[in-house]
Fold these 2 entries.
Entry 1:
Amino acid sequence: MPSALLVICEHCDSVYRRQVLKPGEVARCQRCGSVLYRRERHDLDAMLALTLASLIVFLIANAYPIMRLDLAGIENDTTLWHAILTSYDSGVDAIAIAAAVCVFIFPLMQIGLFLYVLLPLRMGHVPRAFIGAMHALRQMQPWSMVEVFMLGTLVSVVKLSVVAEVTPETGFWGFVALACLLTALINFDLHLLWDRAEALQS
Amino acid sequence: MSARIPRAIELGVLGCPACSRVVPASVQVCPRCAMPLHARKPGGYHTSWALLIAAAILYIPANLLPIMLTSQLLDVQRSTILSGVFLLWQEGSWDLALIVFTASIVIPLAKIVVLAALLLTCQSRSAWRQRERTQVYRIIEFIGHWSMLDVFVVALLLTLVHFGKLAQVEAGSAIIPFTGVVVLTMLASMSFDPRLIWDAPAPEPASASPDHDRPAATAV
């Protein structure tokens, strides 16, 4: 039997024959209940739209201050990069590196790599470094934490509101939107792209 | 459908972890994506245990040392993760207190305990509740990175509360072990191979009654 018709559960090693699903359907492993594969409701166009929207929102989230603090008439506000640099200057490199990598570098690279992969596929050819880009996307995913950072800003607003007047700014809403868009984007089954690339190459 | 579902290791095939291509077990590199292939994640139990023990050791200073120093005029307040949770609670935001408590204290501890239990049961080749153990593994994989929450909160607070003698927030010494716990537990759960749960020699009573809830996939 051609092995392209088989699928192996990555959590329990069970082997199944692939079946054609209806859009939105999910195939689960009978033995352990993990998701084996799914047929997306939307296609490459939806992924591309989400990626472009993420890019725009990413720029907004980083260009504007996240929140503003008013203590007895003195005002302070911060962007993500300001927070990263201040942490670095205060000698807590661990925080600065975690925030820079998980909230800025990896999410930006994810958006860039999705664009790099999706645009050519949509136009009917496979980009040169397709395989490398797909590996990078898979490995980066657990370390991309925009949604955690967003919750962190919320906790900070509440903590600060006791001692001073604090207002969420444009950057905060940017991060809320970015968290939603990126979550929707990484929930897509990447096999859609592997299959498309293979179909184009043959 | 009542037939026992075969396993890749029995059929002599392998699945690529990156692109899911199925190949004969003798193949060492995925023909589609050039990923090195292994029947089980390389590193085995040693890697997972090493990461897990390191995380468990760091968990202690992460919780005992202050994570944040707040100074207002001449008064310096050191707060640990737990006292930060109490403070949120007293201020009336019990919902956020619960979120921070879960993300910073419960999740890292749960990950350490659950992974240790999974490693021990797999090493003794236990066939106990394999399906539930796999589900628990999936949950800790999914929630792992939420523990980074407190790191981001400290980063934001020390940037915003920067008013010299009037009010100042600084990071406490717990922040480095705490970040270490989060990263190490994430690496430990990535290094664990859930297929080991199913490698125990097991009679399968479940195969006698087909699973009607999940009919989407059919056994070969």
Entry 2:
Amino acid sequence: MSKKKQPINRLNKFFSYDDFDLDLSMGEEWLHGDINFDLVLFRVDRSKTVDDVYGESGKGEIKFLSPIEFKGMVVIGSPDNKTYSNGLGRILEPGNMTISVYKHHLEEKNIDITYGDYIGYYETESRVRYYEVANDGKVVSDNKHTIGGFKSFYRTLLCTPVSGDQFKGV
Amino acid sequence: MGLPKKHKNDINVYTGKELLERRRELLEEITNQDTNLPESVLHEDLDFGMLEFVKDNLLFKTGDGDTINYIRRILTIQRWSEMSNTFPFTDEDGNIELPFIVVIRKPEVPFGTNPSLQYTIPDRQSFFYRRVPTWNGNRLGADIYKIPQPIPVDMSFDIVIVCNRMRELNRFNKKIMQKFSSRQSYTNVKGHYIPLVLEGISDQSQIDSLEGRRYYQQSYTIQLQGFLIDDEEFEVTPAIDRTLIMSELMSDIKGPSSSKIQKVIKNNIEVITEKFLGDGITTTYKTQKKVNNLFYVELNGLVLVLGEDYLHNGNSSNIIFTTPPPLDSVLRIVYTFDSSLKSMEGKFLNIKKEVIEFVDGQMTYNLEHTIEDIILLDVGGLLQIEGDYFTFIKGEYGVTVNEIPPITTPKTKMSILYLTQV
């Protein structure tokens, strides 16, 4: 792939890079300054987590990179009350978590969130619920993720809750 | 080169007891309790046996080194029960922590398929189980314990494993396969070995849900071929502790009557008269000798009719009466043992019987053959005595009677049994 960069000239009569940066900075100011939803990313160190046959690891065997805080817009679904087997073995399954995060913010933090990473979300001061990234939202070609079709500026992550034996934090 | 010193000449493959001793051991396990009867085996006992089987045989260490979580109760529809039984391994949300194993019993319990117990004793009848000695302070007795046939039942269980790792599935599967390598395994319920049959494996894993929580879930369906024993159906009845034996000895064959025998020689022929006393019961009277020629049978002076009043087969010594002669009645059987009848002169004799109707005013009646001797003369069944009622002359035809009975209708008849020359 060519390293050459091609400037975006779409909407150039009434929208420019400066406008884009302005909107982005205003949005970040609102999200990071006013809303301020803190999340903790636990990235799996894939080079150190090795399983020859199944590619799965036991409890405490997964190696993580250093946890990193980041901010995003968080929406959590309602829990699902269900059972494992024909009405027996009840489980109150937490709803999925949808995170909207600015790409600029991830670039600033120099992190990438990928499929399978874990994200901790403080529900209370002492209670963290962990989620697994089921959709890392790297494909942002749709209009929704752009400003008027000019350029994409955020990602939407879909995360599912994980059970304690899978991940309980580092 | 010598043999190695440390070697075994015999390998004891089976270290337990065998054959009769093993059977006694099993019986001891079943009855090893306060009473001499087996304990009840009901649905909850079989359920508990299944839980114990899983606990003892199917649990394994997870990758963390901990034993897999096991819900030690049968889950029912009561929610509080499920909550309390899963309490030791739930997370902050109250959800069961993975991995875990749970036993789920299918509510329906059909009649059993174990062929050794099916339809062998009908109608819940009890059968003898054991005789137990009793002592009431004075007398040694016994109680008979009876129990009905156990009812076979098939109970289906799903042993469900829910986990997040393939390795845990593998470990559990290995346990199951090792235990059921011979199709069936056994659990011990109150001393009874109950067969368990692996019926199938099904998978309900949530692995196709991309945007939901994913986990493995597999069910192993196991059929428990048990039976029900209910102690409320047991019967304890006292056995016989004293016996009073009353015997009444009766014989339906009477005789021989040696003290009553009377022998008369008539024309070189020994005519035997045997006298019996009737007892009202006996129908068959046995003479001392074989009866070759039965002359007559008389009951209290009345001559009986062969074929009607009594039966006699030729050459037999048994006289069989159709009805037993009355009590204390006098029975006379007149017969000869001789098979060939000969006169003093060595001439062969025949026995003839004639029945003559009385004629008014006629005192002498001629017979068809000459008379050598008269054995029996009766009038209307009443035995008459020679010289007293009738006379005859040897070698002639006539019989002279002293008195003629009143002429009646039908006419009174005289029956004469006599010997004549051939």
